[in-house]
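ok trying again, last paste got cut off:
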Amino acid sequence: MRLFFRISTALVLLLGSAWVALALALTGAGAEGPHPARALLALVLAGAAVAVWRRRSGLAAVTVVAVGCVAVYGWMRTVTPSGQRDWAPDLARAARAEVDGSRVTIHDVRDFRYRSTSDWDAAWYTATYDARELTGAWFIVEPFSGVWGAAHTMVSFGFSDGRYVVFSVEVRREKGETFSALGGLFRQFELIYVVGDERDLVQLRSNHRKDDVFLYPVDASKERIASFFLDMVARMNALHARPEFYDTLSSNCTTNLVRHVEKVAAVDVPYDHRTLLPAYSDALAYELGLIEKDAPLEVVRARHLINAKAQAADGQPDFSRRIREARATADSAP
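nice, full thing came through this time. structure:
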């Protein structure tokens, strides 16, 4: 029993000191990267805990580490998100909207034209959409190549005039900054709702990043889809007025979509590991009946993999129509 207590105490000291080191190194870190000098303070905490352990008891040492963790957490809470930083060029503008009943005018809808993932012609536009003219919503899943369970998820809304607009919940990177799931646990990145054309947000992923992209029609009434759209607009405006931090576990692309779905879906969305491993989020949507269930999941996945169709429609002004029409033709083939 004494050996078990000593091993448990040692693990607490090790994990607590490691958490403090990561928190000090990553919290508030921007394009300059982690702060190793600041993280060295964790060694001071660990040394103090070991000294107390040797002179007094393991419980006293754990108390030292616990006090250190609480103090560092309190300091982390003083680091606040901002909407004013030197943002990466593709995230330089944050969409915002004016809402008049069912009519929504969105400013800074992104519409980049890509030659590669790092070479593009930047463009944004303003457009007005009427929620009464919505014809459907599509759940988009982009599993990351070579990273188990990791993916990006988005939602696209279609209107009777043939237009489509995509909402993508993302990390708002600063110039020179790269995404880190670990950094996303320590208030390193702000959260942004990127709103864009499918020729930008979908084609970037299918045609240039070469990731698989799945485009699933959402099975919901027109009224629920309109509520879904307006709820995402409201959240987008709220973030524009009051920035928030991205959080890898609690406020990422998929968990934010789940919150919107929970407000408007006919079913409750349970807490599920597939919201944290969003490459499998389509399996959860399938089980809940949010996407079609007329065939086994693997058949549904194959039906809605759009890469070949997106490549064929590359750069075309009717990109959105082509990827949907091609799928419908494939489904009807003998």
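cool. The longest helix spans residues 2-26. The chain has eleven helices and ten strands.
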